[in-house]
Amino acid sequence: MPPVSTAGRLLVATPPLVDENFDRTVVYVVDHDHAGAVGVVLNRPGAEPLPEPLDRWTPLLSDPAILYSGGPVAPEALLALGIARAGAESENLIIGRVRSVDLSADPALIAPDLDGLRVFTGYSGWGPGQLDGEITAGAWIVLDAKDEDLVDPVPRTLWRRVLARQTGRLAWLAEVPDDLSAN
After folding, report:
1. Reduced to 3 states, what is the DSSP secondary structure of residue 174?
2. For 46-91, how does the pLDDT look when each residue is reduced to its tens digit (9 = 90+)?
3. By the 8 A CB rule, do 10 and 144 touch?
4. HSE (CB half, 13 Å, CA atoms) of 23?
5. Four-point Cα dihedral 26, 116, 81, 178, nearest 10
């Protein structure tokens, strides 16, 4: 049976996820099929601005305008995702209004079509069946994404806010203390 794709959705780490790379993370899934899955962590802002010559994209970055750690795979790789402006003709759409952005393009040509942009160093990746197994084991909660999750202005609190906007018992997880022994 083929995996159910989580592309365009959020993976919210259940507390505590043993892998410190993903503890309390919110991952936007860019692609998920029989070959595996790729996503980016939305709530791990770095401290570095865009390096030259990519700094020409800085005016288009959503606040905070810094590089984000997208995950532990290929940390030297850069991946840019943006929100296509409503009604704009947009290439490279992933799901909804989220699109990949070619950083080798001229920012002036892309700017009119974007409502926000994030640049990630590295990404999160899973081999064939790996993410499906982790979801089945309860390591991840799969939730619908809102386009604005990608460019959230307060990324460090995104994990709690994504859970809090859910209904029922799932919303309770937003209140789980960072240190479970303090519960």
Report:
1. helix
2. 989 998 889 999 999 999 999 999 999 999 999 999 999 887 666 6
3. yes
4. 9
5. -10
